[in-house]
Design goal:
With about 500 residues, the protein is of the alpha+beta class. It contains 14 helices and twelve strands.
């Protein structure tokens, strides 16, 4: 029976009972009216009429209460079951089924619901199967990569990791997948070093973190010492609007550079050996030139003097190059030793000016000094290394300045307790594209005609950074360049 029929039947029964009660009351009233009040049958008739009215009225009330209790429940209970079943489907419980047979309508709803649930279950099973197949395929690809790879979400949970990475960090897959990398790093020093770039560590200076990022990571793996270059990549995908990119996580990749590191070490050793070997014959050449120039042996004619001067200039240039190479090999091999002592900045500036006086006079360059009238703090640094840096910067400024030009060298103290020594020229300047590259080994700005090895600025930066300082450049084409060395006072 459908709901409409149930409602019609219930209303019909209630109407019939009310009509019966009214008819019974009217009939008994007519009977009592027709009977004489003093008649002996009047009393029993009245009692009998009231009894029938009470019985029929009570029956109507009981039937009404019964219908009031059962009829709404017969509609409400299936609706509750349907609501709960829909909630189960929303919670991905696609095995839920309905058995509603209380009415034709609910029976039809139950059949349609079960048909929908069955289709959802089949679709979910096929989708899950495809997802699992895709997941296994991706895991196979990741594990086939020879470089260690670690993937993390925004909450720093490890989503995937290949066998190479597990071997390097010495952990098992079940110990890391879906676990917090920060929690694991508390007991794993290597993982802590890897995620340091992605997690803010209170009290850690930014410059130290940048320095670590540039340096190769040394790891003992596969029974040997290996070197890895760490690369961090952010994973993003379109957001809900399909346009705005949302960050979803990070990928850490370690590139094995052990082979290149070994080659670089061999190159450094070779350059160091050659530089040491070259110094002896160059020194012998310089000594021979001094003997030739000695007037006591005999005067040289003009042509011989020109040849001697040419040999001297090239020998000095070769000696400077070998010196730069030796300094470079010290830095690269980690054998750079600092001998700090208390030094006045003005002494370093005066040393640099004295070392470049002949070159400045040759090109008629005027050297100006900017030094504060107030007292400036002293430096605790390796004066030989810092003087070398200033000498190199001033030499570059002179070489890249036009004839009859001027160069400014000076120092100043900042409010945050640093001393800045600077060298400024008014040459053609450096293209902003090369501001970072000029500090790389052997790099020379394209189109530069001035001779040089391309090592001076690189070694200067290494010397300054060894003192926990910085060396920067501010330059614009046509306006000259200013190199600033910043050291802690």
């Amino acid at each position: 029976m459908n709901i409409k029929s149930k409602l019609t039947l219930a209303i019909g029964i209630l109407v019939a009972m009310i009509v019966l009660l009214v008819v019974l009351s009217v009939v008994n009233l007519q009977i009592l009216t027709a009977t004489e009040p003093d008649s002996p049958a009047a009393g029993p008739g009245l009692q009998r009429a009231l009894l029938w009215i009470y019985v029929v009225g009570a029956a109507c009330i009981c039937i009404g209460i019964g219908m009031w209790l059962r009829l709404p429940a017969s509609i409400d209970n299936p609706i509750k079951e349907l609501t709960n079943a829909i909630q189960e489907i929303a919670n991905h419980n696609y095995e839920k089924r309905l058995e509603l047979n209380s009415s034709e309508e609910f029976s039809e709803v139950s059949k349609n619901f079960n048909r929908m649930a069955k289709r959802l279950e089949d679709y979910h099973a096929s989708t899950l199967s495809d997802m699992m197949a895709s997941k296994k395929y991706m895991e196979t690809i990741i594990n086939s990569i020879n470089e260690p790879i670690i993937g993390l979400n925004n909450d720093m949970e490890i989503l995937f990791i290949n066998d190479e990475a597990l071997n390097v960090i010495n952990l098992k897959r079940e110990e890391v997948i879906k676990h917090s990398a920060q929690d694991i790093s508390l007991r794993n020093d290597l993982l802590r070093r890897l995620i340091r770039e992605l997690v803010e560590i209170p009290g850690e200076p930014v410059k130290d973190k940048e320095k670590e990022k540039k340096e190769p990571l040394k790891i003992y793996a596969d029974n040997k010492e290996s070197f890895f270059q760490v690369k961090y990549m952010s994973i993003s995908q379109p957001g809900k609007d399909g346009v705005t990119m949302e960050k979803k996580g990070h990928v850490i990749m370690l590139k094995n550079i052990t082979e290149f590191k070994e080659l670089d070490s061999a190159k450094t050793t070779f350059i160091s050996t050659i530089s040491h070997e070259l110094k002896t014959p160059i020194s012998a050449i310089m000594m021979s030139l001094q003997l030739l120039e000695d007037q006591r042996i005999g005067a040289l004619n003009e042509e011989q003097e020109d040849l001697a001067n040419s040999i001297k200039e090239n020998s000095e240039r070769l000696l400077n190059i070998t010196g730069e190479l030796l300094n470079m090999t010290q830095v690269e091999s980690g054998k750079l030793q600092l001998k700090p002592k208390i030094t006045k900045p003005i002494e370093l500036i005066e040393y640099a000016i004295k070392a470049n006086r002949v070159q400045a006079e040759k090109f008629n360059i005027q050297i100006e000094v900017e030094y504060p009238d107030d007292k400036i703090s002293r430096l605790f640094a390796d004066s030989e290394k810092i003087a070398w840096v200033l000498t190199n910067l001033l030499s570059n400024a002179i070489r890249y300045s036009p004839e009859n030009g001027r160069v400014i060298i000076g120092a100043r103290q900042t409010d945050d307790g640093f001393i800045e020594m600077f060298v400024r020229d008014f040459g053609k300047g450096i293209d902003p594209r090369y501001h970072k590259s000029i500090f790389d080994h052997y790099f020379r700005v394209p189109g530069t005609k001035v001779q040089g090895s391309g090592l001076g600025l690189s070694i200067s930066r290494d010397f300054v950074e060894a003192h926990n300082g910085t060396l920067t450049v501010d330059s614009k084409l046509g306006e000259g360049s200013t190199f600033v060395m910043r050291l802690k006072a």
